[in-house]
Amino acid sequence: MAILTEWILAELALHPDIQSRLHAEVQSMAEARLKEEEEEEAGGAGRRGTIRDADTARMPYLQAVVKETLRMHPPGPLLSWARLAIHDTEVGGYEVPAGTTAMVNMWAIMHDPEVWAEPDSFWPERFLEGEGKSIEVNSGAVDMRLAPFGAGARACPGKAMAMATVQLWVARIVQRFELQQVDDHPIDLTEVLKLSCEMAAPLVVHLTERIKL
Q1: Which of 17, 21, 75, 76 is most buried, by the most CB atoms less than 10 A from its CB?
Q2: How far is CA 57 from the centre of its chain?
Q3: Could you give all domains of the chain from N- to C-terminal order, each with its CATH number?
Q4: Model-level pTM?
């Protein structure tokens, strides 16, 4: 979750127009939250108007930003569905010798120009109805266009928690801060594969406070 959040913040800092649109959605939701709390004379001990878990389900652009980051920088680019060929065979015109271990290259699928328009462009709008083709994360076992958590019976059991947590973290960060690149620490989107697909150079950004908590 931390690695995915880092990738999202990097892309937002590199794309201020996308960050501004996301902040507008977050701010609109925060104002709606504040109005609801005032009407209910509630709010709890925390800051009134703060984004909550339930709010992210009503924020389509936030969800689109997270999905687009998962497409561009999947934390697990090679899905752990390893299969061992027990005899020589042929798949899609390729010879597969016995003893070969095959894995699903999710990174290649999510950067395939035959599957995605302009796959190397960070474009969250592709996931919004009316602005592009809306594709859900893990929309089904047969839809592998966007399956960073795997699909079917062996999909990652932590998917729901990861998505909810990252969406909330990002919404609260964008609500409170504006992210900007630092001149002497340019953002490098070079990927390095360790346990997950990480940034080769740790993210460094300048945060300008929008609101005080």
Answers
A1: 75
A2: 14
A3: 2-209 (1.10.630.10)
A4: 0.82
